[in-house]
Each structure stands twice: as C-alpha cells, then as structure tokens.
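Data deposition worksheet. Section B asks for the primary sequence of the deposited chain exactly as it was used as input, without tags or linkers unless they were present during the calculation. Section C holds the resulting structure in token form. Section D is free text for depositor observations; keep each observation to a single sentence. Incomplete worksheets are returned to the depositor.
Section A, Depositor: J.P.
Section B:
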Amino acid sequence: MSIGKELLISDVSRSGWANQQLLDGCAALSAEELERDLRISHNSILATLRHIYDGERVWLLCLRTTADLGIWRLPQEPPPELTLDALRQKWPEIWNGFGHWLGDLPENSLTVELMLHLPGGVEQRFPRWKILRHVLEHSTLHRGQVVGMIRMLGHQPPANSPMDYYLAGGGDTNV
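Section C:
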C-alpha cells in the first residue's frame, strides 16, 4: 500500500476518533448549553455537530459513486435534525463506511475523477482523494469551532488533536 493511501486511512481513523471524543465530551453538557446560540459556526454546538455529521454523510455518498454515473449533485433535502444521542448512535456508521470504502478501494481509484455539481452552479471534476481531503479538513475546521464553543461555556473540551490521537494509541496498527 502506498504511503498516500496509508495516510488517508490514518486520517479517516483519526477523524472518527476526534468526532467520538467531541461527542463524549458534549454528553456532559446540558440541553440548553448544546443548543445555545453562540454566534459562531452553525450557531450552537449541536447544530455544528449535525453539520459535520451531514457533511461526512453526504460526501461518503459521493465518494461511493462511480464516475460513469454522470454528474453528482449535492442532496437537496434538508439534513436530519439529530439529537446528540442519535448522533452518537448513527455517526460511527459513517466513520466505518469511510474506513471500509477506503480499505476496499483499489489504489488507482483514488485518482478517478468525479464530476460534481456544487452550489452556485459550479460543475467541476475532482479526484476522489481531493474530495476525501476536503471532507477531513471540513470536519477538522468545525471540530475546532466546537472546542471553542465548549470553552466559551466554561467547560474543558476533550482532547482531540492528532498528537492526542497518537498518544491514545491511535494509528499504531497497520491497515
């Protein structure tokens, strides 16, 4: 396996771990704290977590698409309004989905380009690896915002950096 694919697998695993850390940390917050409008990101912690989840859900659907299906469009239906408990139950399916998809994907399929129709009428081809990098960076950005919101509420956020992941033993096994 190339170092590129190995890094992507490690990054997917770390992202799922970091999401789980946040979900576990948020379990200690009250319903009012989870839904308080803090005027950053998607307003509240819960709304931002939902946004991360939905982004990962939608882009996993995209990545599983084959290039011969034509233009892939972002789903138009509203995202699910999940509770924190529902996110804790449903989100691991998404992380496992990324892991299985990537683990089973032939190496040369990472460079296959998918035609995307994005908001604003933009249509462009992107290789799968770039779409996956976007998903991972998008989640990282919003996790950082959730960490900031937890601090704004006067709580200690859970550790969820790459080094925290490595110190917790993440990434020690070869895939």
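Section D:
Residues 3-167 form a domain with the Four Helix Bundle (Hemerythrin (Met), subunit A) fold (CATH 1.20.120.450).
Residues 128-152 form the longest helix (25 residues).
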